[in-house]
Amino acid sequence: MKKVFSLLAGCFLTLYIAGSAGASTYEFEDMIDYWNLTGTSYGESQSSSHYWDSVYMSENYSLSYTHDINDSVDLAAGDLVTEAWLELDFTNDDGDDAGSLLWGLIKWDFREYVEYVFDDGAWTEIGEVDNGQYDLVVGVDWLNDDGLLEVTLSVSNLLGTADASLDHSRLYGTAQTLEPSAHAPEPTTMLLFGLGLLGLAGIGRRKKLN
């Protein structure tokens, strides 16, 4: 009887492996590199003169925008984001130390310190962002929820005069799509197969008893 059950378990395991879905990994990207003067409208490309290739932030203005990966990741079909990063590019940003304004007696500090928050979470400081590019790790749970990433950036310094210029914001990473095997047996087929094996086992045992 033990042999029969071992055979039965082996058959089920074989069917499960044959019917299990394979996974295919691919890359996705959502780029925002054109902004209007307020930063509330953006896109991958704009020919309108109302749009600029960078957006300005200051102490009195926090920049908020949303990345959407639904065009490249089919969450409705069961695809899942496995890794994600946000690339913030402050290239060509001006600032830092203004040098001496009073013959070296006073040195003003105009460095700009940027902090960010995702989806109303906790604020995190990037640091001084003069003319640099930064990659921030994004929690995949946020993206797998609805494919949207809400980003808010804020800039500050000790003088209260900070400003910064964001060239582009790029959300990128990898996602996985499930690809069921074309030969995957249906649950009903597996059940009938199992019952058939049990029936054969019963017949075999009955012959031995007779």
How would you state the average pLDDT, rounded? Answer: 76
Coarse structural class: alpha+beta
In terms of quaternary structure, the protein is single chain
| CATH architecture group name of the largest domain | Sandwich
Principal-axes shape call:
elongated
Helix count?
Answer: 3
Tell me how many strands there are.
14
Total domain units: 2
Distance between the termini: 16 Å
Secondary-structure element pattern, one letter each: HEEEEEEEEEEEHEEEH
What is the CATH topology descriptor of the largest domain? Answer: Jelly Rolls
User: What value does the Rg take, in angstroms?
Assistant: 29 Å
Layout of secondary structure:
Blueprint: H1 2-19, E1 22-32, E2 34-35, E3 42-43, E4 55-58, E5 63-68, E6 80-89, E7 96-100, E8 107-110, E9 113-118, E10 124-128, E11 133-137, H2 140-146, E12 148-156, E13 163-166, E14 168-179, H3 187-209
Antiparallel strand pairs: 1-14, 2-3, 4-13, 5-12, 6-11, 6-14, 7-8, 9-10, 9-12
Helix pairs in contact: 1-3
What do these coordinates show?
23% of the residues lie in helices and 40% in strands. It is of the alpha+beta class. It folds into two domains: 1-21 and 183-210; 23-179, Jelly Rolls (Sandwich), CATH 2.60.120. The strands form five sheets. Strands 1-14-6-11 form a four-stranded antiparallel β-sheet, covered by helices on one side. It has a four-stranded antiparallel β-sheet with strand order 5-12-9-10. A two-stranded antiparallel sheet has the order 2-3. Helix 1 packs antiparallel against helix 3 (187-209). The radius of gyration is 29 Å and the shape is elongated. Mean pLDDT is 76; it is low at 4-20 and 43-49.
